[in-house]
């Protein structure tokens, strides 16, 4: 037997029942799965209203502290770099949402006792997670958009907003954060209590987004850094995707795919290890 | 009964229970040589040891065993949630390890009791979600959900968040979610744990209905012998990772039946008259008679009840009952009642899991000859 074979495929089949004629099942598709994840997420947000609203409020308050506190301390210097701060903050809040959406969901589902149910989906646990991530990214973009509007309003700053370019660059910039989420989610499958790592990641992401890219090539190979650089250029200079250097975009795509793929591979590997050690349902 | 554990053979498995595997019916669940060891070296623990089972459609199988016997690891290994070291599992023909996606389309499981569901979602929202991730379009199984809610007395709670339900109701929601789509085999780990009587009865009734009407195969683990004895067609008893018995509940009880009887006697009128002449108030069975009975038979304690005495006696074979009657008559005793003392599943379980008993030994002792 190949012990670690993961479920694959995109649509459950209709099969004959054993010893009892045709057993009807399996009319759902990936769209069904995506809709189910979206509905669950929306319902949980609605049923945990305080959590949802305080999360958004904290994002606004934290930004206010940075801008107004920074102005008091750094004055004109902060005003000059406000555009970069707004873009960086938008990217940070989106990346945190994407990272947490993956990493925390593993520990949450484990605590709720539903992780094994998700694992037993005929769609495959990977697809269930990815559907959840797609929903999480959309949610992150929504909150990121609201946060961006808030930031532009209170600072009076104007930025270029080529929507398609910003959307594509943000997805590619955030993909490594999703990969990191998979990585730490995988660790959580085996080691369970890794919440402190999640908290540290908030600061690590700030460092990655703010890392200086000029003249130091290897820094651009770090997760999110290249995305942050290109997104800032696009939104401050009004550059569209095709107006950006091909090599720069290629590097962004390369780091996005590499970190996402690496994180997903680690997640699958740790999942197989958790199953070998009988840890899947532990919390 | 001191022999080593011995599994009941596949021949008996085929004969066990109402819906078991026959030559022309494929098993709904087939497990072959499943083994799982945790840890290495001196600390290695053999949690599941070479377990094989075939279960036919519409059969309810109870998995019993003391804590640490390997019940949960067996179920999770069958489900691929714990990767077995050796062995094969097929669910309704699909290989659990090589074609997991197809296998998961055929199974539902309730593994964490009331924790198996989202407490902030309503009952119906949970059903729809678990149907969807199980590969079923929720509108297509709406009728099934209505029927499940009705059977489990949850219709009025359909739009209530699970968090607001009682423990028993949460447990029922968990069961309903495991069955939210049409599956061939359902695994239920301690489905009645912590339930009140009414909820437990509802659950038992629903489990039987699913097996009898929907031909669903159900594997349940439980510490509640009453549930297993009432609901299951067949029982698998585990000890130290091994299956030490696998048979129909009634057959297992038969194997451990030991020709035990509860006898109530009274002194004959003649003997009573003589005793009264001699001073009266004497024990219905005098010391000599007790001693002779103890020398000849395996007799339990004598309980005096007014002018009567009750005791339990275990005989070597049913014919011994005639000899006992003669012995009692010789002691001037009149038999008032004789009742056969049948073991229940709990006694069988204790016999098999206390480290001494085995089905083979019980059969050799003659229990199977009845």
Structure explained in plain terms:
The complex is a heterodimer of chains A (283) and B (370). With 283 residues, chain A is an all-alpha fold. In chain A, strands 1-2 form a two-stranded antiparallel sheet. In chain A, 72% of the residues lie in helices and 1% in strands. In chain A, a hairpin with a 5-residue loop joins strand 1 and strand 2. By secondary structure, chain B is an alpha/beta fold. Chain B folds into two domains: 10-248, Rossmann fold, CATH 3.40.50; 260-340, Alpha-Beta Plaits, CATH 3.30.70. Chain B has 14 helices and 15 strands. Chain B has a six-stranded mixed β-sheet, sandwiched between helices. In chain B, a hairpin with a 2-residue loop joins strand 9 (234-239) and strand 10. In chain B, helix 4 (123-133) packs parallel to helix 6. The longest helix of chain B is centred in the middle third of the chain and has 18 residues, at 197-214. Chains A and B meet through helix 1, helix 5 and helix 10 of A and strand 5, helix 3 and helix 4 of B.
Global structural class of chain B: alpha/beta
Low-confidence stretches of chain A: 2-21
CATH superfamily of the largest domain in chain B: P-loop containing nucleotide triphosphate hydrolases
Report how far apart the termini of chain B are.
Answer: 18 Å
Query: Approximately how much beta-strand content do the residues of chain A carry?
Result: under 5%
Beta fraction of chain B: 15-25%
**Sheet having the most strands of chain B:** 6 strands, mixed
Mean pLDDT of chain B: 81
- As for the number of domains of chain A, it is 1
What is the multimeric organization of the chains shown? heterodimer
Number of DSSP-assigned strands of chain B: 15
Using only C-alpha atoms, the radius of gyration of chain A works out to 21 Å
Share of helix among residues of chain B? 25-40%
Describe the strand arrangement of the main beta sheet of chain B, using strand numbers: 6-7-8-3-9-10
CATH class annotation of the largest domain in chain B: Alpha Beta
CATH topology of the largest domain in chain B: Rossmann fold
Query: Regions of chain B with pLDDT < 50 over 5+ consecutive residues?
Result: 1-19
Number of helices of chain B: 14
Rounded mean pLDDT of chain A is 81
Helix amount of chain A, in percent? over 70%
The run of helices and strands of chain A is: EEHHHHHHHHHH
